[in-house]
Amino acid sequence: MTLSVSVQHHFGGFTLDASFEAPAGVTALFGSSGSGKTTLVNAVSGLLRPDQARVEVGGRLLCDTEKGLCLPPHKRRVGYVFQEARLFPHLTVRQNLHYGRWFSKTRGSDAEESRLVEMLGIGALLDRRPGALSGGEKQRVAIGRALLSQPLMLLMDEPLAALDEARKAEILPYLERLRDDTDIPILYVSHSVAEVARLATTVVLLDKGKVLKTGPTEEVMSDPALAPAIGLREAGSVLSATVVTHHDDGLTELAAAGAKLFLPRIGGNPGDHVRVRIHANDVMLSLDPPGRVSALNTLPGTVTSIRTGGGPGAMVQMQAGDDQILARVTKRSAAALDLKPGTECYAIVKSVSVARADIGAGDQSMAKSDTTT
Ligand SMILES: Nc1ncnc2c1ncn2[C@@H]1O[C@H](COP(=O)(O)OP(=O)(O)OP(=O)(O)O)[C@@H](O)[C@H]1O
Questions:
Q1: How is the chain split into domains, by residue range?
Q2: What pLDDT is stored for residue 156 in this prediction?
Q3: 121: how many CB neighbours lie within 10 A of its CB?
Q4: What global pTM score does this model have?
Q5: How far is the CA of 304 from the centre of ligand 1 (A)?
Q6: Does any ligand 1 atom lie closer than 6 A to the CB of residue 42?
Q7: Per residue, what are the HEC states of 270-300?
Q8: What is the CATH number of domain 3-225?
């Protein structure tokens, strides 16, 4: 099921003019504060009646201002998950979930409820009240409640923003399962590059009310032209990798970027797909294969583009196997190595520079592309 959105709206000095398609999976609405993410989500949910809009999901028209059609929020079948879980404190987890079912026309089936309880890992919590749950557990229940209303799409507005790092790490694998097991579009608003890199199938990058770029996460994240909008410190590429084996010295060997990638041990079995985010700041470039050097990862590739701005840095994109890698070097180094599109070089990445939080489960799109090659 695909969500198609086209919205134009004016508020005083701000104009939103954005169109995008959100297929099944997680579509991240990403952009700096004030770029229009909430306005866009409100236009999709019906909380805002835009000047002009067309919103359609799975062939069902929710809003078409040209035809004078704009369904109110309660007729749009949208599931919502906010920063705070907003569960009913006097009801148990089970009763909170049943509240979601009550809102669905078909009332959902027991089998559907069991599947969601299992997927979200909340079986042991069913008789507790929200006061006895951690923030991450509450959010998992809130997701279950939203899905049991059998929505046509799920809107998640900064669902992890109120959680500490440990609770975020606990809930991310459930969100990855949600992404892979649910066939409705999930719109996910976030300020966090780490969350977007880990979860999103598609990214819509917003800036001052406009879509700067939309496309598959790997493509948007590794576009050097977008690094300033993403944040130079946060910029980096997302690689689609496959677990090859776990070595006795604590390293996991992955196949990525047409080469071997060694990282401190991660979970998963040989053959599993994972996505790995590599910060541009953590990548060195060399024209020659490095000799005696401590970094374990040497990924050969070809420079595809170089982006410079007013500062001393240069963002270099290279193609390595099926992946793109982003490296942030100085303009001085780029000149000294005479880097230009077509230059063959090696990206050097220290194993320990890749944080555990930057490695996530690969999504179905990776599995699909794998089977077609
Ligand atoms: N009801 C309103 N009236 C007037 N201006 C508004 C209204 N709502 C939002 N705006 C303006 O529209 C712009 C976009 O706001 P919006 O809340 O959509 O951004 P955002 O990307 O969600 O920001 P944040 O990440 O801070 O939540 C801002 O300049 C904001 O001041």
A1: 3-225, 236-372
A2: 93
A3: 15
A4: 0.88
A5: 36
A6: no
A7: CCCEEEEEEEHHHEEEECCCCCCCCCCEEEE
A8: 3.40.50.300
